[in-house]
Specification:
- By secondary structure, the chain is α/β, with parallel strands linked by helices.
- The chain has helices spanning 19-30, 50-61, 71-77, 95-104, 143-154, 176-191; strands spanning 6-11, 34-39, 81-85, 111-113, 119-121, 127-133, 160-166.
- The strands form two sheets. It has a five-stranded parallel β-sheet, sandwiched between helices. Strands 4-5 form a two-stranded antiparallel sheet.
- Residues 5-187 form the Flavodoxin-like fold domain.
Length: 193
C-alpha cells in the first residue's frame, strides 16, 4: 500500500491578499499528498539570542529534543515535500523566514556532521518548492531563494529545490492577472493540470 506524502506548507505571506499565497495555494492544489500549513505570521518565532542558544545547545548536547523549541525541526524532517511561500522583500524574504530556518537547523535532528565534517541531512524531505512574488524585477538577485537553496542542499542534503516566481507585478501598466496566470501555467506544466 502506497503511503500518502506529507506536505509542509511554510506560509510567510503577511498580507491577507498576498499574491504569493495565491500562487502557493494554486501549487498546493497540484500536489498529491496531505498538507499541513505552518503560518509563520501566527507563530512566535524569535531569532536566537544568547539565552535561547545556550538552552538549545544544552538540549542538543544531551540529545534531548523533547523541548517545544524543537517542534519546527521535527515537523520539517517529518515532511516529504516542503513548500515555502515568501514574498520578495528587500532582495530576499520577510525576517521571520530566517528565524524559522534557525529554528529548523538543529544538529542531530535535521542534520549532523560526518567524521570528515561534512553536513548530512537527517530528514525525509525530498523536495523543496519556493514560491515568491515581487512588485519589481527579481532578476539575478533572488537572494531569498538562493539562501533557502544553499541551506537545504548544503545542510539538509536535499537535492530537489525549485523556485516559482511572478515578478514586475507593481510596475505601472503591468498585467497582474496575466503575469500570475503565466506562473500558474508554468506550475501546470511541472505538476500537471
Amino acid at each position: 500500500m502506497k503511503t500518502m506524502k506529507k506536505i509542509l506548507f511554510v506560509n510567510a505571506c503577511v498580507r491577507p491578499q498576498s499574491r504569493t499565497n495565491v500562487l502557493a495555494k494554486y501549487l498546493l492544489d497540484k500536489l498529491d499528498g496531505q498538507t499541513e500549513e505552518l503560518d509563520l505570521g501566527k507563530e512566535d518565532i524569535e531569532p536566537l539570542n544568547l539565552e535561547r542558544l545556550e538552552k538549545r545547545d544544552l538540549y542538543i548536547s544531551n540529545k534531548d529534543f523533547s523541548d517545544d523549541m524543537f517542534r519546527y525541526a521535527k515537523q520539517f524532517v517529518g515532511a516529504d515535500i516542503v513548500v515555502i511561500a515568501a514574498p520578495y522583500w528587500d532582495l530576499s524574504f520577510p525576517a521571520v523566514v530566517k528565524s524559522y530556518i534557525e529554528a529548523v537547523s538543529v544538529q542531530g535532528l535535521t542534520f549532523h556532521y560526518t567524521e570528515e565534517g561534512i553536513p548530512e541531512g537527517l530528514g525525509n524531505v525530498k523536495k523543496v518548492i519556493y514560491v515568491t512574488t515581487a512588485g519589481g524585477p527579481i532578476g539575478e538577485f533572488n537572494l531569498g531563494f538562493d539562501y533557502v537553496k544553499a541551506v537545504c542542499s548544503g545542510l539538509y542534503g536535499i537535492g530537489d529545490i525549485v523556485c516559482h516566481k511572478a515578478e514586475m507585478l507593481d510596475i505601472v501598466g503591468a498585467d497582474v492577472e496575466g503575469i500570475l496566470k503565466n506562473t500558474m501555467q508554468e506550475i501546470d506544466q511541472v505538476y500537471g493540470v
